[in-house]
Amino acid sequence: MEELWNFVIKATGVTPDGIHGPQHWARVERNALLIAEENGGDTLIISLFALFHDCQRINDHIDPGHGKRGAEYARSVRNRLPLIDDNAFELLCEACEGHTDIIHHENPTIQACWDADRLDLPRVGMTPSSRYLNTRLAKELADTHNLQFLDKKTVREF
Description:
Layout: H1 2-12, H2 22-39, H3 43-52, H4 66-76, H5 86-98, H6 108-118, H7 136-144
Helix pairs in contact: 2-3, 2-6, 3-5, 3-6, 4-5, 5-6
C-alpha cells in the first residue's frame, strides 16, 4: 500500500501539504478505519478511497467532478491494484464518484469513506454536521464536537 500511495502522489503531482492533498488523504484513511472498526467497512477499499477520492482535484476550492476524475484515475491504474476483486473495485469507484454529491448510502464501507472525509472538514474551517453523516460514531463525534477522539489512531506519514 505504501508503494501505491507514493506512486499516486508522485504521478499526480499533488501538493503534499495542500488542504486536499496527501495529509488530508491520510486523515481520511485514519477516520474511516476507526469508523470501520464499529460498522464493519472493508478496510482495503477504505484505504484506496482515501488515496483516490481527491487525487484528481484541479484546485482546492469548488471543483465539480473531482470525485469522478478520481475514480477514472483509479481505473487507469487498475493493474496496480491486484489485491482487490472487481466487485470491490467498483464499490471503490462508486465511493469516489459520490463522495461530494450524495449524502447517505446503505453500504457500510461507503458510509465509512464519506463520513471520514466529512469529519476532516475542520481543516477548512467547517464543522461537520450529523445530518450529513451516515454512521453512529461519526454522528456522535459531530454532535459532541469530540473530533479529538480521532487522534487516538496514528495517521499515515509521508
